[in-house]
Design a protein that fits this description.
By secondary structure, this protein is of the alpha+beta class. The chain is 57% helix and 20% strand.
Length: 191
């Protein structure tokens, strides 16, 4: 019984410390930011280099460890292998989704509007004049721009060039739309 309690305590402690370490790491990545990229007069938002590096590093470092833990570790039983293979496949799929999202996600901000490209929603274009609602979602730290005929374009804090984006958005959005949400996003970004 003592061993089970100690295992539980170690699991809880490592989970909490791992979560705090991840939060501190993402804060560092957010503050490291990156320069804005301009292409043919349009602002291009992509993930920061540091964010991309972390995504690739996690995948490269984790996958061999996961393979060893599931298939070659001395404590692995036949039952562990059977369930471990399914778990490994799920985790590998999640890692590939993370890398795909990191490198494929892109937002192009022009004088006409915003084009968002994502593996999950495809490509969306919202004209500045079509934006009817702008919201800041604190729990996910997203700025969501809702067009009248499209789904939302979500912009989070892990993009390079956010100060320039905020300036461009403030120029194109009506004060009614930009004052609350864009100001909240700017305040969160500036911390």
């Amino acid at each position: 019984m003592l061993l089970a309690v100690n295992d539980l305590n170690i699991g809880l402690l490592s989970g909490v410390l791992g979560g705090l370490l991840a939060a501190a790491g993402l804060q560092f990545v957010r503050h490291a930011g990156g320069p804005a990229r301009w292409l043919d007069g349009a602002l291009v938002l992509t993930r920061t280099r540091l964010y991309k590096g972390i995504s690739v590093s996690i995948t490269i470092l984790f996958m061999p460890l996961a393979v060893w833990a599931v298939f070659a570790a001395p404590w692995v039983s036949a039952t562990d292998r059977r369930y471990g293979q399914a778990l490994f496949a799920l985790v590998a799929l999640l890692a590939l989704m993370m890398v795909a999202s990191t490198f494929y996600r892109r937002i192009v901000v022009s004088d006409k509007g915003i084009t968002s490209r994502s593996p999950w929603t495809g490509t969306r274009f919202v004209a500045w004049s079509d934006i009817k609602d702008v919201r800041y979602v604190p729990i996910f730290q997203w700025l969501c721009l809702h067009g009248s005929s499209t789904g939302p374009v979500r912009i989070d804090l892990m993009f390079a060039g956010l100060p320039d984006f905020i300036d461009v958005a403030s120029q194109h959005l009506s004060p009614r739309l930009s004052e609350g949400a864009v100001a909240a996003f700017r305040a969160r970004f500036s911390r």
